[in-house]
Prior knowledge:
The longest helix is centred in the last third of the chain and has 34 residues, at 224-257. Helices cover 23% and strands 32% of the residues. Strand 7 and strand 8 (110-113) form a beta hairpin. By secondary structure, the protein is of the alpha+beta class. The chain has helices spanning 2-27, 224-257; strands spanning 37-43, 46-50, 64-67, 70-77, 84-86, 93-96, 100-104, 110-113, 119-120, 126-127, 133-135, 144-149, 154-159, 166-170, 173-175, 183-186, 189-191, 200-202, 211-214, 216-218. The chain is built from two helices and 20 strands. The strands form seven sheets. Strands 7, 8, 11, 15, 16, 17 and 18 form a seven-stranded antiparallel β-sheet that branches. The model has no long low-confidence stretch (mean pLDDT 89). Helix 1 (2-27) packs antiparallel against helix 2 (224-257).
Amino acid sequence: MLRAMRSAASGMKAQQLFLDTVAHNLANVNTTGYKKSRPGFEDLLYQTLSPAGDGAPGTRPAPLQVGHGSRAADTQKILTQGDSEVTGNPLDVLIQGDGFLQVNKLDGSQAYIRDGALRLDADGRLVTAQGYAVQPEITLPDDAVSVAILADGRILVEQAGTAGATEVGQLLLARFSNPAGLSAEGQNLYAETGASGAAQLSTPGELGFGTIVQGALERSNVEIVDEMIQMILAQRAFEVNSRAIESADEMMRTAVSIRPA
C-alpha cells in the first residue's frame, strides 16, 4: 500500500507538470511565432517480485513486477507551422517553412527566433522587439522611402531622389539537425545546445530552407481546443491518482485496525 501511495504521488506530480505546460501554451496563444510544448513521461523503476522462468515446463512465463509510478522525461517543442497573419507592415517577415532568424544578444551570444516582427533602432539597423540585431547586420539608409524584402531574403530600398532600388542586405536563415533540442530562452528566443547540433546558415529558399514573406507574421501554433482537452485529461488523471492515495490510506488504516482473535 505504501508502494501504491508513492506511485500515485509521483503520478500527481507528473500531472501537475503536464498542467503547467498546458497553461503555458494557453498563455502564449497570441504570441507571435510561439511553438507549443508537449511533456513526455516515463515509468519509474520496477521491483521484480518474481523473475520469469527459462521457458521450462512449470516455470513462470512472465515476471511479477511492480512499478513505482511515473515522472516527466522532457518537454518537446512542436515546431509545426503556425497560421499566417497579414499585417501590411513592410518590416514584418514570416518564415514559410524551415528555419530561424539569427540575432545577436546584448552579451554577444547568438540566439534564434521565429518572430519576424522586426523594427529599426536609432542607427537604422533591423532589430527584434527586444532590440537584438538581426545577423548578418542590416542597416537601412535614413532616406529610404520604401523597403522590399524578397522571398530569398534580399532587402531592396528606394531612396529619396534616386531612381530604382538598391540592395542593402540579405536575410539568412538558420536550421538545426534536431530543432527539438533547442533551449527556449524566453522573449521568443531559442539557444543552440549540444542536442540541437550546430546552426546551419543558408539563403532562404535554398537547400530545403523556408522562404520569406514580407508584410506578414506567423501566429502561435497553439490550438485552444486541443489544449483544453489536454487540460481536462491532466485534471482527471490528477484526481484519479489522489483517489488512489485515499484508497490506499483507507486500506492501510483497515489493516492496522485488525486485531488478532
